[in-house]
Amino acid sequence: MVTTFIINLFYLVGAASFVWGLRLMNAPDSARKGNFIAGVGMAMAIIAALIEPISGAFDNFAWIIGGLVVGTAAGYYAAVKVAMTAMPQMVSIFNGLGGACAVILGLVEILLIYSGEREASSSALIIITLTIIIGGIAFTGSFLAYGKLQGLVNDSAVTLKRHGLVNMLLLALTLACGVFVFLQGAQGSPMWALIFIGIAMVYGVSFVAPIGGADMPVVISLLNSFSGLSAAAAGLIYGSRFMLIGGILVGAAGTILTVMMCNAMNRSLMNVLIGGFGGGATGGAQGATGSQVVKEISLADAAILLFYSKSVVFVPGYGLAVAQAQKICKEIDDQLEANGVEVRYAIHPVAGRMPGHMNVLLAEADVPYPKLLDLDDANNALQNADVAIVVGANDVVNPAAENDPSSPIYGMPVLKVWQAKHVIVIKRSMGAGYAGIENPLFFHERNKMLFGDAKAVLSKLNAELKNQ
Amino acid sequence: METFMQFFNDNLLLIYLLVFTILLGFEVISKVPTVLHTPLMSGANAISGVVLIGAILLVRQTRPDDYLSLSLGFLAVAMGMVNAVGGFVVTDRMLEMFKKKKAK
After folding, report:
1. Which amino acids of A are annotated catalytic?
2. With an 8 Å Cβ cutoff, is A9 touching chain B?
3. Domain ranges across chain A
């Protein structure tokens, strides 16, 4: 009686701590505490699950403790070792493992039904098939997302012709298999269960395959919501309200984040999932070719320009992350600030490969977050800025989104860097951005280019500034 | 339809829980500033490690001679734990950097 009460209390407090923790993550000052509280909630639930009295249980604590120790060691090691720039990949893998965990639970439960150890009620069968489908997509989809972000998998290598149709067929096949396994009930064979799981996992890969690298933030967030839902479904198998609440919270959070990101790009989720970006982008390329002149600026001129400005706005993009140039960016910031120049950072909601990717990188370089401006504030600041420096960003500063209806990104809100008095674009080459779209900004009258790797160029610029 | 309505009536409390949790999730998240999107996603990802609880309950109910289920359960516990521990630690590392400093 007392034990049951304590255990139920643990689960209740654990679930409440998830909500409270997420709530505290609304503000930078309290976010760390919020994360900690959610972690404590998880720990309480693990303890409760270990001591919960289950009639006829065999406990097998050695197996459980072993799994907990191995998981803790591996998770902690990976989390501590990962570089800040590789964060999106890491989160993706963690997410995939959560999905894999749900798939295994579904597999074992269905095998137990076949061997007669569990009752084959239709509600149990529905829940198990749902767990397998959602968990399977989250599992393999996250691993492919990891491969893409890590640069191990090329987009075109995994995209088939008419991929949209292939995906539709695979989804139909997955659902059909699920219905088949459900209808067979206790008479089903393990072979069919495995085929079903296999197809769900193939669908997970195929689902993520056509989605371009630039859209990865949206996909990771969506897969995160899937793994939450699979955990919630698994919670129904074990009648655990705690798992249900945790899983649904993640599902809702992931969905909202996904929608927020799609809105920021002014595209529908469907459009992102079909992967219309890269392939159909050729239409927007015209009008900005050939005869137009690109002006370059020398490092010394750039340094002087910055040194005598009142207000400078950095516009970071994925190129900054790739070149690991965030720290040198901060050094330039410090030098300019010491000279009375106001330095701020314009952060586009989808800059980088993860929502808020740039914020994390700049925070790593000790840039105080009040200097990071979101889209609206940044555009206000850009109107009065003397210099806008674009570091490794491209599509998020493309004026075609504003004035060229034929461009694939037409209608996406962008950072209007061309409203600043001067624009300097630091870029490796004249190549098109991730979306494969020509950028008229480079030919803009106020724009000057500084070609080279972001880190190398900024280091030289930093050295030039020291000479001033 | 009959079965659906029956299910609805039988599990009313559960359905209330479901609906209110969804609304709560939307409400809690929709106010988060862009700055915190990455840590939030990563933190939510850690919470999806709750699937681990199911894995623990599964192993506890497995017969000690059912080595297939035990091995799979062990794997599930380990993977769920990686999701949870890794998620919380990575989020903490990110948030550690969000210290407020006075802008000069």
Report:
1. 395
2. no
3. 2-278, 285-467
Nearest CB partner across the interface for B25, out of A82, A248, A359: A248
pLDDT at residue number A39: 95
- Please report which helix (H) or strand (E) contains residue A261, including its range: helix A241-265
Classify the C-alpha dihedral A321-A325-A330-A332 as positive or negative.
Answer: negative
Q: Answer whether A362's CB lies under 8 Å from A344's CB.
A: no
Please say whether the beta carbons of A354 and A220 come within 8 A: yes
- In the prediction, which pLDDT does A290 show? 44
How far apart CA B50 and CA B71 sit, in angstroms, is 20
Q: B51-61 vs A87-114: helix axis angle to the nearest 10?
A: 30
- For A40-61, the DSSP string reads HHHHHHHHHHHH---TT----H
pLDDT in tens, A118-142: 888 888 899 999 999 999 999 999 9
Are A388 and A313 spatial neighbours (Cβ–Cβ below 8 Å)?
yes
CA nearest to A414, candidates A431, A399, A435: A399
Residue A32 and residue B26: Cβ atoms within 8 Å? no
Question: Residue written as tokens 């964060």?
Answer: A87
Of residues B94 and A438, more confidence is placed in B94
Q: How confident is the model at residue B86 (pLDDT cuts 50, 70, 90)?
A: very high
CATH fold for the domain made of A285-467: Rossmann fold (3.40.50)
Burial class (CB in 10 A: 0-12, 13-18, 19+), A47: middle
Distances (CA, A) of B46 to A98, A186, A228, A333: 9, 34, 10, 34
Q: Phi first, then psi: give them for residue A83, nearest 5 degrees.
A: -75, 150
pLDDT tens digit string along A50-81?
A: 998 888 788 889 999 999 999 999 999 999 99
Between residues 43 and 72 of chain A, which touch chain B (CB distance below 8 Å)? Answer: 45-46, 49-50, 52, 54, 56-60, 63-64, 66-68, 70-72
Q: What is the pLDDT of residues A182-196, one digit of tens each?
A: 988 888 889 999 999
Mean pLDDT of A433-441: 69
Answer whether B9 touches A (CB < 8 Å). Answer: no
- The reported pLDDT for the residue numbered A97 is 95
Residue A272 banded pLDDT, cuts 50, 70, 90: confident
The pLDDT of residue A17 is above 70: yes
Cα A120 to chain centroid distance, Å, stands at 38
Whether B50 sits inside 8 A of A90 (CB atoms) is no
Hey, which residues 191-220 in chain A have their CB within 8 Å of chain B?
220
User: Which residues 31-90 on chain B approach chain A with CB closer than 8 angstroms?
Assistant: 31-64, 68-70, 72-90
